[in-house]
From TrEMBL:
Domain NADH:ubiquinone oxidoreductase 30kDa subunit, residue spans: 10-118
GO molecular function annotations of the record: NADH dehydrogenase (ubiquinone) activity
Listed InterPro entries: NADH_quin_OxRdtase_su_C/D-like (IPR037232), NADH_UbQ_OxRdtase_30kDa_su (IPR001268), NiFe-hyd_3_EchD (IPR012179)
Pfam family, one: Complex1_30kDa
Domain of life, source organism: Bacteria
Name of the protein in its database record: NADH-quinone oxidoreductase subunit C
Organism: Pseudodesulfovibrio alkaliphilus
Length: 122
């Protein structure tokens, strides 16, 4: 098994994900991690014939991220989860649950980000 990490930017992530799809890779999942006080990293994990490739995107938490759900429809679940858990906005998300996919209505704080409040859901 081989692993390869490719750094991407907000401007190149969708194109690189499209290349992965065109090359026959399946989207496995994403991993999200805190880089520093206001930075966030996302690893997009792909697999083809036991070869894994990861795209690494690093952004400021306040920046929106282009959605890849237009390329891999199933990405909408992971992107909505990241929105729920990390307070990240994805531009162009094919189905946006507006922080209601995994969070109960009574949740008023973003789970993985300290001191970020959210309005209660109706």
């Amino acid at each position: 098994m081989k692993d390869k990490v490719i750094n991407v930017t907000r401007d190149t992530v969708v194109g690189e994900v499209m290349k992965m799809k065109n090359d026959g890779y399946r989207l496995v999942t994403f991993s999200t991690y805190q880089v520093d006080e206001d930075g966030l990293g996302i690893l997009y994990h792909f697999d083809k014939n036991l070869e894994t490739i990861h795209l690494r995107l690093t952004v400021k938490r306040k920046d929106s991220i282009p959605s890849v759900s237009g390329v891999y429809f199933a990405a909408l679940l992971v992107e909505n989860e990241i929105r729920d858990q990390w307070d990240v906005k994805f531009d162009g998300l094919v189905l946006d649950f507006n922080r209601t996919l995994y969070l109960d209505p009574e949740v008023t704080q973003v789970p993985l980000v300290s001191n970020v409040k959210i309005a209660p859901k109706q």
